[in-house]
Design brief:
24 strands, binds copper (II) ion, globular, five-stranded mixed beta sheet
Amino acid sequence: MNRRHFFNGAALTAVAAASVSRVAMAALPEPVIMNHADTAPPLTPQTGRPYNPVVTLNGWTLPWRMNNGVKEFHLVAEPVVREMAPGFKAHMWGYNGQSPGPTIEVVEGDRVRVFVTNKLPEHTSIHWHGQRLPSGMDGVSGLNQPAIPVGKTFVYEFVARRPGTFMYHPHADEMTQMAMGMMGFWVTHPKGKHPLIDEVDRDFVFLLNAYDIDPGTMTPKIMTMTDFNLWSWNSRIFPGIDTLNVRLGDKVRIRIGNLTMTNHPIHLHGHEFKVTGSDGGPWPMAARAPEVTTDVAVGQMRQIDFLADEEGDWAFHCHKSHHTMNAMGHAIPTTIGVDHRGLVKKLQKVMPDYMMMGERGMADMGEMEMQIPENTAPMMTGTGPYGGVEMGGMFSILKVRKNQKPGDYKDPGWYKQPAGTQAYEWTGALPDPARMKASSTAMPATAGPGTEVQIRKPMGTMAH
Ligand SMILES: [Cu+2]
């Protein structure tokens, strides 16, 4: 059965079964399906109260229709193929063709009706994380509602009571369904000027998510508890994550939600920001302090605001260094400092594919042309104007440009460093280092007899 036939069948059953609202029984809005992972331009509202729309990194906002003053959306839960990076695709579950699902944008006070059609092979539900709503609309299967059976459509309806940064995800077989990529962003814009919500020029949103996909395979391992090998933003990994392109002097907001199994200290270069809100709502002024890193714990959302007043290309990433790398085997010893000279050739006589890794650090891996299985994310990749960036996973770039036009989100290319403003090589003579003498009376000895320690860790493994 193709998608359209299946959907028509599902929709008909749903109309017959819908009992939440009489208006909902009229008809369902045609579901909008996205077939690529590009960042869509902001969706300017054509109906309802005006607002400044957000930009979803490598995602999009779901169009709605107005039905007697109610904003109607249609989400279709279904298996999808998500391109996590160019040349690397994964079999996931998501909504409307992608993982994550589309962002839903509404305005404070809007009455919202969301039709959810289940095209998964098992039941599902949607929880509207952070929202004030009737208990029966909260989406916890078994507790608030029966799960949505395969092939059926349920209707959720509530008023978006408070403005802020929210997300949605299943609350039925959650472990499987979130490990497979089911989640989406929700923004409720304030209905007018709000004392704690500044107007901004650019407003970016994304979810932190993680997958465990063995090299050469396409489906996430759902039993993985903490040892994921792909750390992603909106189910994309660097260099597959689009850059955040802004105009010099823009007020910028970035909203982040964490649906992984660990915390992520998100770090911005070149600027200070303030955390101005969370899924709990806008933060009081007294709670806001300048930061360059903010930790986003599991199940939390953070909204950061800053003035983009430094031109350039600025890294923006999770500060856990293993989260800025892609799939790798990590049960291997650290071999930095081990001299392998002559060893590789001998080993290659018995194992022709043998390669030695990490003798001088792991930077070599970025450029090593190692044979990897098809459909595998390279471990560290991404090339900048000056060579390998040696980053993967949760990494992107804030690009601040004088000439970026208002409303233009196109990638302006690499920043050209003005003459005299870039780190450069010292080509003069290097003086001999002045060595501290252990017997010098100027410095007391720090180690007494018998305290010398030799650290040797031949089988040390790299741990997350
Ligand atoms: Cu992280």
